[in-house]
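### Sample
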Amino acid sequence: MSLNQLIQNCKNNNTKAQSEIYKLFSSKLFALCLKYSRNYAEAEDNLQDAFLTIFKKIDQYKNKGSFEGWLKRITINTALQRYRNEKVFDIINENNIEDETIEIDEDSVSLDYLLKIIQELPDRYRLVFNLYVLDGYSHKEIAKLLNINIGTSKSNLARARQILKNTIEDFKMGQQSQSL
């Protein structure tokens, strides 16, 4: 059965089609949930909430653009909804924002380690970092999604990069001292 047929069947509340859509996309969407969640259990909750929203709003998908992209937007919004009502963002003067570049020597820092330290960032930094760096949102889009101003988005990104840079440098120093 084609994806378009599955989508049409989901619009008719066909549970088998919903199950197929879940099987097709749940692993990708779960990986997305992990990026925006504090832990594994919260990511599982976000995935379930996202699929409830997806099936409730599937009539709004008009076969324009990528279905997977539509699913990802709903999933990200679902995960971010948990943070919107919390005061996780500080308002920061944007005049003192320095953009930090991070040099990563791929031989000394694994992708698993990078993902781990990104996951350990405070919520406000992790969310902005993931949206901007990993998912390609602009600061204007991030500000709208998180209900913050553009300067706060920029400063949280700069702070996330600084924390990651320091953590990677500390890690490398630890590795060098072990090899001496």
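Helices lie at 3-11, 15-36, 40-57, 67-84, 111-119, 123-134, 139-146, 150-179. This sample (RNA polymerase sigma factor) is used throughout the tutorial notebook.
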